């Protein structure tokens, strides 16, 4: 039977919790300040080793990556050396908390939760990727006719579908910020419209504007970022502008809710200046003799391009001349054709016969390495057991030795093993070794702000010195810390004296509405439950 309680969850995607709190304290974010004064605030911590791509699947299922198998947007295709975009099949392995509530008879409204497929048979309304960072499915709704209504009354989200654009000028940064500000205002109107016209027991809306702004505009906010341009005073603090707009939007949504509604405002993971030397991981593995590229000849020289390869090179050159605004949709279309309809992935540049391990994507601030394990990989070269353990120890030792050649500072914070962190049915699909880089030094890019800090250097006795010129267009990236603020019947105001796992949020939400999430890693938060 439907529960008499109502729960509204508003997520600020990838907002810096320290900024939220300091700007609430000084009056910059008055609506969050009011919520903090009357509600319960707590720090949160994302799944270990961050696993940025696993943030939302882990939150929605209350499982670690070993329980759902998602670690990044692009994942290794099982039984291959190919990378493919994760899809509805992978993201539907375990039920989300709103699907559990729906099955229990609760009516739900789910809006723009990242990396969430459209739930089959949902008792309620769902919006998929009206305005979401790193879209995977395209704009979809349940019911389908709702999408036409949204576009007719609110239009598409004002910000670019893919917000990564290299070399934005200060004026273009201001334009993106204005689009994000407008997007937050539209999102508030859309949310209030649905909440007022539909019946619901649980609703969730995710403000993606902070996520896109954090990646693209951090150098316009943080004087410690190498690309920060102190002379360009006309740009202003564009991150602040985006946060203010999201705060105002949240205030508009909350003003329409009564005192009987439990409200949770949260950010699952944070944002800070770009850091991490993951770009150098492939070259480190090459220097260590643990990996060989497929594109290298027998002496390690690049393979000669001829025939089809030469034609491919010509096509790539032509592709790079296409404007970015057209190139992004073309890439997405190609990926859909290759992966969804032809079942193909993108081969990684590794020669299995000459490699004991290889790197896989896990975002700019982390590195991930997968062993070329016999019995798991198609052409494995590492025996399970002692051989694999020895290789893991060697990788740990070699990466922990890395220093900055000029300062001597250690570059790696720690090296972890997925098997120790994330046991579960999908452990075999995850990278084996996770490398957390230190937050210092900050990393710049030739395509961000002043272009300073773009040359990355590492050194160690085992590899000598390596250098990389960063051309990535982001100036901010993620941190593992987040926070939530909760207000509602039976919730005592104040601040928790402990940090809460983000895995605990979904079981708390279902428990509030009278349901349970079976066999999950998270546990309900007692302070948010009725006494």
What's the number of helices? 16
User: Largest beta sheet, briefly?
Assistant: 10 strands, mixed
Question: Which class best fits the helix and strand makeup?
Answer: alpha/beta
Content of β-strand: 15-25%
The name CATH uses for the topology of the largest domain is Alkaline Phosphatase, subunit A
CATH architecture of the largest domain: 3-Layer(aba) Sandwich
- What is the C-level CATH assignment of the largest domain? Alpha Beta
How many structural domains does the protein architecture include?
3
Task: Extract low-pLDDT stretches.
Answer: 298-313, 338-343
Q: What is the radius of gyration?
A: 23 Å
CATH superfamily of the largest domain: Alkaline Phosphatase, subunit A
Mean pLDDT: 91
Would you report the number of β strands?
Answer: 21
The 3D shape can be described as globular
* Intertermini distance: 21 Å
Secondary structure: helix percent? 25-40%
Oligomeric state of the chains? single chain
